[in-house]
Amino acid sequence: MSLPDPFSELIAPFSRRGVDLGLNRIQAALAELGHPEGRFKAVQVAGTNGKGSIATMIERIVSAAGTRCGLYTSPHLLSWCERIRLPEGPIGEEALKTLLQRLQPLALRHDLTPFELITVAAFVAFAEAEVELAVLEVGLGGRLDATTVHPQRDVLAFASIGLDHVEHLGPTLEAIAQEKAAVMAPSAIAVSGPQAPEVQAVLQAQAEARACELRWREPVASEADGGPRLGLSGALQRSNAAVAIAAAEALREKGFEVTDEAIRRGLLQARWPGRLEQRQFRGQPLLIDGAHNPPAAAALRRELQPGQRRWLIGMQRHKDAPDLLRHLLEPGDLVRVVTLPEHSSWSAAELRQDVPGIEDGSSDLSENLEWLVQSERLPVACGSLYLVAALLPLLDPTD
């Protein structure tokens, strides 16, 4: 997806660096600014799948309780403004443009990466908006993620941890969990839903080593069984909601006034586009989802009734696409693979070696959508949030 004007000229010059994890650059930049991140407290959300959902649930709960709350998430779908949510809503385009222009000399002096630059911008925006609390979604890993420089992360929430970004975080679940568990801080309260046994062991050991209290939560009951009504769809959201509720309860212990009614309203108000989102294309239903790694693919498959369906898939080249497809597809499924705009992608020819019968998608996304919706069962577009972002403008508008 192309960066929308006016942000391409303000962020693109830093994008040649790619991923460059570390805290020294952003710490120096924030020190020069007088540490705006010290003017508000934070909840940090780490993990692999479900971070954004948990973060937005917590933000909605805290806002429903009357606290001035900010939300920082990544990546965005259509605009960089989506990443910084202020108490009044997403930061305005002109406000973000002005802020990024202010920060250009600082970013050049400290050689900030794009993620570090937008993180600094978020901290400045939150400080100037006088938020009392910010919910910070970790971008990648945790130990060296830019959000971890925040000094008052009294509550930490863990989404499901799985294999992803192995080129940066390590090849095993244990290695990845170590990187993510490193956000734990002394005297903080950490909360998590169910994890794989090896992940659970790492989190527990790190909590003890870092003098951080770790609390485990089972998924909340379904609405039919007396559980809360959620604004987000999918069985996985019952686990995410449990983590968000536990984080809200921990915030209450830390001095924030969070009522049970605020929890109920916040869970219902939470929205997270591009995740199990039912939309229409020219009046025909389809499902779009950002599932981009094998654990997310397995979770998506569990949400669907068995039986043949059509898939439109686009995946970044560094993802484990063959394993993702093994989790996702059933015999008889029809699959088209498309190239992601401006991103190195898997091709249908490469994937046919593991999954015979995969078709090359058209270069025209509208033609692919026309093919997709000719399915007896609900068709699905997934594989990357970049694909979701490219498709959204082509779909029928929502009410």
List keywords for this structure.
14 strands, globular, 8-stranded mixed sheet, 14% strand, alpha/beta, 399 residues, single chain
Description:
The protein is an alpha/beta fold. It has helices spanning 8-11, 24-32, 51-64, 93-110, 114-128, 166-169, 173-181, 197-209, 236-253, 260-269, 294-302, 321-328, 348-351, 365-372, 385-391, and strands at 41-46, 69-72, 84-86, 89-90, 133-137, 153-158, 189-192, 213-216, 277-281, 284-288, 310-313, 334-337, 359-360, 380-382. Strands 4-3-2-5-1-6-7-8 form an eight-stranded mixed beta sheet, with helices on both faces. A six-stranded mixed beta sheet has the order 9-10-14-11-12-13. The longest helix is centred in the N-terminal third of the chain and has 18 residues, at 93-110. The protein starts with 7 loop residues before the first helix and ends in an 8-residue tail after the last helix. The mean pLDDT is 92.
List the helices and strands and how they pair.
Elements (H helix, E strand, L loop, with lengths): L7 H4 L12 H9 L8 E6 L4 H14 L4 E4 L11 E3 L2 E2 L2 H18 L3 H15 L4 E5 L15 E6 L7 H4 L3 H9 L7 E4 L4 H13 L3 E4 L19 H18 L6 H10 L7 E5 L2 E5 L5 H9 L7 E4 L7 H8 L5 E4 L10 H4 L7 E2 L4 H8 L7 E3 L2 H7 L8
* Cα separation of the termini: 25 Å
Return residue spans where pLDDT drops below 50 for at least 5 consecutive residues. Answer: none
Mean pLDDT across every amino acid position: 92
Structural class category: alpha/beta
**Tally of separate helices:** 15
Strand order of the largest sheet: 4-3-2-5-1-6-7-8
Helix content: 25-40%
Largest sheet: 8 strands, mixed
Count of DSSP strands: 14
Element order, helices and strands?
HHEHEEEHHEEHHEHEHHEEHEHEHEHEH
Name the beta content range: 5-15%
Radius of gyration in whole Å, from Cα? 21 Å
Q: Judging from the principal axes of the Cα atoms, what is the shape? A: globular
